[in-house]
Amino acid sequence: MEEIGRVAVERLFAAHEEFLSAATEAYDEVLEQVARRIRESGSVGKLDIGALVFWKRLNASTKWVRRLMDTSDEEVRRITRDVVVAANDLTGTVSDAAAEARRLLSPLPGFARGDAVASAVIYAAAPDRMAVYDRRAQRGLERLGLILTTKPGRYGRYMELVETVRTAVTEQSGISWTARHVDLAFFQLGR
């Protein structure tokens, strides 16, 4: 695994602080509400996915959204119950849990490829351990010299990098970051 040096950790702290100074307290309200709903129900519904698409500021007039809307909420929840369980599975590593949750999510329309919305769903299913991935996070990784390819299994590998960075931050600063702290720093670095 890649080594995260002091300069990279300093850049992450600066990016995280920059993000926090620009974001409002309301920035993650929708995400937090969806996470609460998932925690209470144990599954993710179409309403939750729609809210996360809104939160990610994505175009909802796409073919995959239409196919998802043509899928019953009961079927969506049947699939996502296993996703919620996998994302919260503490028996293996975070990256293993992330990879399994991502694999289980892939049968849903719109989730076979791409990790942006999928990562938001998985994060909302396990906000204490997962992180959000998108093209800005990818650019942030690249600006730190961290490599994350697009080959299958990217979200699990992303979470492995997130955990490596979390560990480096803790070891070098004594401050314990969550995976969300890391993804926000990546996001800011990638702007």
Helix content: 55-70%
**Distance linking N and C termini:** 25 Å
Averaged pLDDT, please?
93
Low-pLDDT parts are none
Largest sheet: none
Number of helices: 10
Computed structural class: mainly alpha
Rg is 16 Å
Strand content: under 5%
Strand element count: 0
**Which series of helices and strands comes N to C?**
HHHHHHHHHH
Morphology call: globular
- How many structural units, i.e. domains? 2
Task: Describe the structure concisely for a colleague.
The protein has 191 residues and is mainly alpha-helical.
Structure description:
Helix content is 65%, strand content 0%. The chain has 191 residues and is mainly alpha-helical. The chain has two domains: 6-23 and 132-189, no CATH class; 29-125, no CATH class. Helix 1 packs across helix 10 (179-189), helix 2 crosses helix 7 (116-125) and helix 8 (135-143) crosses helix 10. The radius of gyration is 16 Å and the shape is globular. The relative contact order is 0.17.
Topology, pairings included?
Layout: H1 6-22, H2 29-41, H3 46-55, H4 63-69, H5 73-87, H6 94-105, H7 116-125, H8 135-143, H9 154-173, H10 179-189
Helix pairs in contact: 1-10, 2-3, 2-7, 5-6, 6-9, 8-10
